[in-house]
Write a structure and sequence with these properties.
This is M23 family metallopeptidase. By secondary structure, the protein is α+β, with helices and mostly antiparallel strands. The chain has helices at about 20-35, 40-45, 55-60, 60-140, 265-270, and strands at about 150-155, 170, 180, 185-195, 200-205, 210-220, 225, 230-235, 245-250, 260. The longest helix is centred in the middle third of the chain and has 80 residues, at about 60-140. It starts with 17 loop residues before the first helix and ends in a 5-residue tail after the last helix.
């Protein structure tokens, strides 16, 4: 038996419900918006459908709006991230520059400190050299045994007052108690009573010669003591074989009596103005 069907124009199967189609369109547009291609694909989707519905009827406009918002959010987030990266880079660059500047300042401070230390050392060494030179000159300087005095009796003067018949030294005018000084640097080899010389001091000078200071009222040094030019060794007086207070001064080439030399010539040879 043959099947029969109603007469009339038959319709093709209807499409998916509108809600289903709109949901699919929204999902597609969202995907396209997230991938950045919604603008290129949205235009064809706006064409009219077979059943006469427009893009507005299917909700496509809403999908495009949502996709734009997502794109704006992505762009804003990217801009925020880029700004944060730029700020971090600027901060890192500033910190690097600060470290570089700090290192430069530290190096400059170190250089200045080293230069100052070197200069101070050079100045200190120069002062030390000058002090040593001044001390060397002072120790090699000779002075008068009585400051501001003069020779009252010359060397080798003849008189019966001296056992040798002549004066073996010179006499410097000096009242009792006048300070008597070593004429140069040396070591005391005798300090005490010297017979006709009374209280006397004998000094071995650094150049190997000897000087003697007689008729002292008091002695201010002891044997073995080192003395320097101008150092006080006693006070003048009139002890021993004398006719009045004065200082008897002798210069000798050895500690032995009879090795005397002209005291004035001796002092002048060492730069003393007499």
């Amino acid at each position: 038996m043959a099947f029969t069907r109603a007469t009339g124009k038959h319709r093709r199967p209807s499409r998916a419900p509108r809600a289903v189609r709109s949901g699919a369109n929204l999902a597609g547009i969202a995907t396209l918006a997230a991938t950045g291609v919604v603008a290129g694909l949205a235009a064809p989707a706006l064409a009219a459908t077979d059943d006469g519905l427009t893009a507005e009827d299917t909700g496509l406009r809403q999908a495009v709006a949502i996709g734009g918002e997502l794109a704006d959010q992505v762009a804003a987030q990217a801009q925020t991230q880029q700004s944060a990266a730029d700020e971090a880079a600027a901060k890192a660059a500033a910190q690097a520059q600060a470290r570089k500047e700090a290192a430069r300042q530290a190096a400059e401070a170190k250089r200045k400190a080293e230069a100052a230390a070197k200069k101070a050392k050079q100045e200190r060494e120069a002062k030390e050299r000058a002090a040593r030179e001044a001390e060397r000159k002072r120790l090699n300087t000779f002075v008068l045994p009585v400051t501001g005095s003069y020779v009252s009796t010359s060397y080798q003067s003849s008189s019966g007052l001296w056992s040798s018949g002549s004066h073996t030294g010179v006499d410097f005018h000096a009242a009792t108690g006048t300070p008597v000084h070593s004429v140069g640097s040396g070591t005391v080899v005798e300090a005490g009573w010297g017979g006709a010389y009374g209280n006397n001091v004998v000094i071995k000078m650094n150049d190997g010669t000897y000087t003697q200071y007689g008729h002292l009222s008091s002695i201010g040094v002891s044997v073995g003591q080192t003395v320097t030019p101008g150092q006080q060794i006693g006070l003048s007086g009139d002890t021993g074989n004398v006719t009045g207070p004065h200082l008897h001064f002798e210069a000798r080439t050895s500690p032995d009596y009879g090795s005397d030399i002209d005291p004035v010539a001796y002092l002048r040879s060492h730069g003393v103005n007499i």
